[in-house]
Description:
The protein contains five helices and nine strands. A hairpin with a 2-residue loop joins strand 8 (125-130) and strand 9. It is α/β, with parallel strands linked by helices and 155 residues long. 31% of the residues lie in helices and 26% in strands. It has a five-stranded mixed β-sheet, with helices on both faces. Mean pLDDT is 85; it is low at 37-47. It folds into two domains: 2-40, no CATH class; 51-154, 3-Layer(aba) Sandwich (Glutaredoxin), CATH 3.40.30. The protein is elongated, with a radius of gyration of 17 Å.
Amino acid sequence: MAVVACANCxxxxxxxxxxxxxxxxVCGRCGAALDAAGGATASAAGAGKPExxxxxxxxxxxxxxxxxxxxxxxxxxxxxxxxxxxAPTLDQLAAESGGRYRVAKLNVDENPATASQFGVRSIxxxxxxxxxxxxxxxxGAQGRQAIAARLAAHA
Length: 155
């Protein structure tokens, strides 16, 4: 038996592998079809996990995105407890994005230049970029609804 996280709502589902081959398993919480690879099949292409950014890729991926959906960037570190608590929420938001926004993560320990460029002094810091520029900043661990509301305001 495997535990499969629904990419639509994030719920953990127990799936019997043999039974899954015979019929399509669905999420017990939201009813979305579960993929044998471990997620809902209804998620948007490329969605599901936040994009990992580095100092080298940040400008092209975020600042160069003059057109398109807003980008939520999580400035985090592996040793930060609140950052680790926020990770499942960001995974869920990425899975639910449906192309309305993008979610990305930048490890500040491994990429100090970008963190310094944007004055990130406390983590987790979530910055929403739209049209290649910063439009909103959330500092500290935030609830899913608060983050989703801020993203919706810029989508």
